[in-house]
Amino acid sequence: MDHHFVGIPELTDVPRVAVVIDVMRAFTVAAWAFSRGVERIVLASSEGEALALKGSHPGWLALKDGAPAAGFDAVNSPGLLRSRDFTGRTLVQKTTAGTVGALAVANAPLVLCASFVVAGPTARFLRTEDSGPVTFVVTGEGGRADEDLACAEYIGRCTAGGEVEAGPYLQRARTSRAAADLAGGRRSGYHPDDVDLCLEIDRFPFAMVARREESLMVLRPVAVPDISSGIG
């Protein structure tokens, strides 16, 4: 299948199917948030918009990249998020790359957001939808982030079916610049377990689909059955 791998700056046309990749850390964090009970994630274009949405909707929470800041309830770190209880809440997320990439393809008929923790379910969802060629949006480093490209290539291979060895792709991510920056404490809002948590292959059994709901771009989990044993 002829997939395409592009950075955010290279998006010129609206793709039919877009899979937006942010391994470290936006769409690992989003998956963890859903696992901790978040009902939906609203993708914001700026920190100001995130705070405005939170302010106008009682009970909503807001999350950002970097260090904790006034008005925000969480930061973009799976290690710092994994023990929180967000049952039934709406979370507004604004990050440097992941949310930017998702909003850049908001007009595509099908948008998924992904990382290694939902890679298998994402590939199975794409096969179920018989989606055809996919545009993978590699969000980090202007489309050059190896952890995002490795994840995109892995999902692309998995959409063809059959067994795909995840190890080489995970190793590329572990030796990426983003992983080194996180491990070295060069990013704020960081937990020492973040790199390992970002590299847990298929940690969660759902894909994450983003759709317009009124004026908002909203991300929701979609359960995807494991059909690896075949269909009887």
Write up what this structure looks like.
The protein is α/β, with parallel strands linked by helices. The chain contains nine helices and ten strands. The chain has helices spanning 26-35, 47-56, 78-81, 98-104, 119-128, 146-158, 167-174, 177-183, 194-198; strands at residues 4-7, 17-21, 40-43, 61-64, 74-75, 90-94, 110-114, 135-138, 206-213, 216-223. The chain has a ten-stranded mixed β-sheet, with helices on both faces. Strand 9 and strand 10 (216-223) form a beta hairpin. Helix 6 (146-158) packs antiparallel against helix 7. The longest helix has 13 residues, at 146-158.
| Oligomer classification | single chain
What's the main sheet like?
Answer: 10 strands, mixed
Poorly predicted residue ranges: none
Compressed to H and E, one letter per element, the order equals EEHEHEEHEHEHEHHHHEE
Q: Rough shape?
A: globular
The secondary structure category is alpha/beta
Give the mean pLDDT. 94
Instruction: Output the strand order for the largest sheet.
Output: 1-8-2-7-9-10-3-6-4-5
Number of helices: 9
Helical content band: 25-40%
| Distance linking N and C termini | 26 Å
> What is the number of E strands?
10
What percent of residues are in strands?
Answer: 15-25%
- Gyration radius from CA atoms, angstroms: 16 Å
